[in-house]
Structure formats: C-alpha cells, structure tokens
Amino acid sequence: MEKLDIIDHIAIQVNDIKKSVEFYTNRFKCKVLYQDDSWGFLEFENTKLAFVKKEQHPFHFAILKENLENNDEVVKHRDGSISKYVKDIDGNNIELLKYNE
Question: Which residues form the domain of 26?
C-alpha cells in the first residue's frame, strides 16, 4: 500500500496568541510546543495547531513533503524547517513543509 502524506498542522488566525493558547489548553488536552507574541504551536494526539497573526501568516494547513527543494521559492523558518505556500483550486492555502533532519 502506498504511504499517504501527513498533515503536520493546521494554522488559524487569532487576535491574541497568549489568550488563544490559554483558551485551548484550558479546554483541551494538548501540549504547548512554542509560544511568543507572534505565534503559538500546540500538539494534540494526532496533529498540531498553530496560532498565527493575520498580518504575518495566512490561515493554512501544512503537509509534510520530504522532497521539498531548498531554493528561492522556499522560506526558511526559525526552527530550521523550510516551506512554501501553494493554493488549491479553490484558493485555500497549503503549506508544503520539510523539517530539518
């Protein structure tokens, strides 16, 4: 059977990162992976949830792509991962993501 792609995380736009992290961690069983004033990252059993600011990142979901080339089209993130955004046929944002090995 062919291996299926993995959805790494879903990112939603929020007004206040701290308040959103508090809301979700007080109501659901999840773990804070990262938090600052510009974004937050929570881990659930089956996926991760990112909180982003509207002026910094689009809402999106991220799919892991190990064959993502490190070239001019990709952005390098503070954790060493690389990604690029593409849109589906309806204009939804998809982040293609590769973590640093």
Answer: 7-98
Does residue 2 sit within a domain?
no
Side chain identity at 83, as an amino acid letter? S
Beta carbons of 30 and 49 less than 8 angstroms apart:
yes
Tell me if 1 is assigned to some domain: no
pLDDT at site 79? 80
Query: Cα 65 vs. chain centroid, distance in angstroms?
Result: 13
Provide the pLDDT confidence category of residue 101 given band limits of 50, 70 and 90: low
User: CA-to-CA distance for 69 and 59, rounded, in angstroms?
Assistant: 23
| Residue 50 counted as domain residue | yes
Task: Please tell me the pTM assigned to this model.
Answer: 0.88
Which domain CATH number covers 77? 3.10.180.10
Q: Between 80 and 26, where is the model more confident?
A: 26
